[in-house]
Amino acid sequence: MTTAYGTVLVVEDEESIADVLAIALRYHRFEVMIAGTVREALALSERTRPDVALLDVMLPDGDGRALGRELRERRPDLALVFLTARDSPAEIVGALGFGDDYITKPFDVDVVIARITAVLRRTRPADVLPQRPPLRYGDLELDETTYSVRRAGRTVELTPTEYALLRFLVRNGGRIVPKEQLLRHVWQYEHTPPESTVVETYISYLRRKLDALGPPVITTRRGVGYGLA
C-alpha cells in the first residue's frame, strides 16, 4: 500500500547510501523501492508505478541518464531526480535536459527529501481538479486534466517541470514574472541560490519546443524575468 506522499524508486548501487535514503524517505512517509542496477530498476518499474525515480548517474551496468530516458519513455508522467558526483555546468544542463532536478554528492539527506517533495508538488499539483477548463493564451492551450500542451492545434511534448513553468507563465498572462518568483513557485526554492541557472535552462528548453510551431512566444526582460508575448 502506498503512503500519502507517494512512491520513490531509488536507484543506487552503494548499499550504505541506498539504506540512508530509504530510511529517511520512509520516515517522511514515502514508500520506497530500491534497485542497485539498471536491470533491477527496469524490472521494478514494470511491476509498480513509482511517482518519482531518484537515480544515481553512475551505475555498474549502465548510465543513470540513459535509464532516466527509458523510464520517461515508458512513463511520461514519472518525475526524475538525478544523484551525481559531477557538478560541471555541462553535466547539470545535460541532466536537466529531460529530468526534473539534480542533487550533487555528497548530499544532505534533508535536502534530498525537500527536493523530492518539491518535485512532486509541482508535478502533481493538489489544486488541479479534473473539471477545470483548459488554460489558454494566444495559440497555446494547456489541458489541466491530462497535463498536455498544444500550440496552434499541434501537441507539444513537455516534461513535468517544463509544463509547470509554462503553466505559471500562462496564468500570469502577459506580465513579466521575476526569476525569483519562478524559483519559488515552480521549483519551490525558499531561498534563491545566487548561482542558479535552472530558470534560464528551462526557458531555453521551452523556447526550442514552442518556437518550432510558431513565432517566439516567451519574452525576456533582462535582469528581471520572463513573460509571454
TrEMBL record:
GO terms for cellular component: cytosol; protein-DNA complex. Residues 132-229 form the OmpR/PhoB-type domain. Residues 132-229 bind DNA. Transmembrane segments: none annotated. This is Two-component system response regulator. GO terms for biological process: regulation of DNA-templated transcription. Residues 7-120 form the Response regulatory domain. The modification 4-aspartylphosphate is found at residue 56. SMART domains: REC (SM00448), Trans_reg_C (SM00862). The keyword Protease does not apply. GO terms for molecular function: phosphorelay response regulator activity; transcription cis-regulatory region binding. Keywords: DNA-binding, Phosphoprotein. PANTHER family: REGULATOR OF RPOS (PTHR48111), TRANSCRIPTIONAL REGULATORY PROTEIN TCRX-RELATED (PTHR48111:SF28). CDD domains: trans_reg_C.
